[in-house]
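Quick start: read one record
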Amino acid sequence: SVCSHNKVKKSFLEAKGNEELKMIYETLDKYDVGEAEQLAKTGLNGSVADIKYEDLLAAGSISSDRLLMCMQRAQNCAKLSAFAKSPVFSRENSITGTCFRINPMGTLNALMGDYGALQLRFWADVQDYSEASKRSPYHGFTVAFHDRDSYGSTLSSGYLMSPGSYYKVDLRMRKESREPPPSGHCDDSQPFTTYGNYSEGACIMECKDRVLNETCGCVNVVPPINTLNYTSCTLKQWATCGLKTYLDWHERYTNPDSENELPSETMCRCHLPCTETNYEAKVSSSDVPMSYADKMFENQNVQNWMQSISDPELGINYNTSRDIKDNMMVLEVMFSSSQISQVKEFVKYTTNNLLGDIGGVLGLFLGASLFTILEFFQFIIMSIAKYCCMWTPGGRKKLDAAEMS
């Protein structure tokens, strides 16, 4: 998944007729509950109030043509047989921006080494960053590697990749198996979620959606597998309820009451999955050479496309090879090894091991066995009966001198 950091682009917010929408978005994107509630009272009326928050993010997000190229073995991905019946990419909405899911159906198999590398080019559109996006220190993209049944929005971290750079990523698959309860702490009760395969991140996202839906009757962004029929909050719902609920949830999640428990365990009850597939990545990078940008700019089709996405009235001008260098991010992904790293968790010391060790220690140092232990308890019981109940082994009560007389 390759996720843009330009959540809502400037050209959308500055478009004619979107003046009120721009004001609303810039207010909500400050994540200030007081300003959002004041906006709901005074500035959210009419049809604008009923626009869904997710629809706003989708309409103002980066365009699909910003994926400039996808190639493997010097062949365009669209011409590969693997994509004859499936798309090269799909789009995923998230609260931080739009993500490109490359090879979403998993039809393209990886080939080891440079020969099988998948090369992608993206256009960052830095001149089309909104004022809110410009305030962020993160420009460019966040890239996450996962299997086809998972989603980039569930991953807590990724690799920040800036425009003007060429990145080479060596991947290696890693499979982990953990011990289920009662001896282990993984969760095998829910193999699939509204965010694909169960993972701690997917569980946390479901927890967030559940809290928002129970409190406000809507969520900020509908999950990709919407089996629970969630609906996205309208701008008014987000301003009056959603934003405050989301920030409260985030505060409680990141600041648990207990010092000895993880946040996901105290509030969301999210444990690690019993089986999990991850991709270990080694990332190297270098600047895109100016000569590379110059060579691309010589192509008339490239110049025409750059002109088509320019908007001089908004200060968006792409007309030099320098603009190519400043906006293009190149990503080359390959598997450095066909070997799969497998890590398996198992109980090394069980209850049976403990009982066996206790028996061994007793036998070694005390000469004790099961029979001697039984005899020991028999001795204790008979001693108590003898001295407390005047009991003798023959079953008769022992008489004292007074009784005998």
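The CA atoms of residues 105 and 116 lie 18 Å apart.
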